[in-house]
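Slide 14.
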Amino acid sequence: MPHSLVLNLIPRSPIYPDFLTGRHMHALFLTLVSAVNQELGDALHEVKTDKSFTLSPLQIQSTRSNLTLQYQHSKPIPAGTSCWWRISLLDDRLFGQLTKLWLNLNPQQSWHLGAADLTIASIQGTPQSTQPWANACSYHELFDRASDSNRTLRLAFTTPTSFRQGKYDSGLPTRECVFNSLRSRWHKYSGVELADFSIESIFPSAFDIRTEVSNDYIGKFIGTVGDIKYQIMGEVTSLQIKQLNALADFALYAGVGRKTPMGMGMTRRL
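Slide 15: predicted structure.
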C-alpha cells in the first residue's frame, strides 16, 4: 500500500540554502527512520538504486501552485516559517516499520537539517483541498478504481525530471521513459501483475514543458518541468486502458525518472 505523507514543519532557526539540497533532505529522512529503527535506517542508506521511498524538496506554505514546486532556494528560510515536506512510501512494510514515528510525534522535538533545527507540527495522510500531495491507497484499490475507458492521461512534472538511458540522461518525458518507469516501480512493490501491457497506443497530444536545471548535485541536473497530455489511440482493450490509468494514478506516489529520493521527478496526474 503506497502512502503519500505531508509533514508540516516549522524551523526554529534559519535554514540556509546549502542545507536545502536533495542530499540534505535525504539525510533528514534517514535520521527520522533511524530514530525509531536504526537497522532499517542503515539498510535504506545502503540501497543505491530503486529505493522504496521518494522525497520532495522542502516547500514554503504559500499560494504557490502545486503544479510546480520549488526545488532550490536562493535565500534562507526564516525561523518560524510554515513549511511542508512530502514523503512517499512505496512498500507497505516500510510504513508499518515507521508506525512508532507517526504515533509518537512530539511537536517539541527538534530535528537537525544541516545547522538548523526544525520541528514537525503535524502529518497529513489524506487529501486536502489545499494539499493534493497527501494520500494513501492500496495497490489493489488503485487498480480497481482505475478507469477502463478514459483515454486521456495528463501528467504534471513538478520538479526537474530526467531519465537514464544507457550511459546518459535524457530530460525528454517520452511515453517509453515515463510509463516504463512507472511500470517498473509498480511491479516491484504492488504484487499486482499488469498482463498484456502495452504503451504503443500512447501519444502526446498537448504539452507545456520547459527545461530546468538544478545545481543541488555534483554537476548539473537537467530535467523537464511542466505538463503533458498523453492520449490513448486506436484499438486498445479495456484492460490495457485500465492498466495505463492505474499507472497514471500511481505517479503521485512513485514519481518518475531519476533521483526521486532526492526531490526530483515529482509527478502527479491532473
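Speaker note: The two ends are 21 Å apart (CA to CA).
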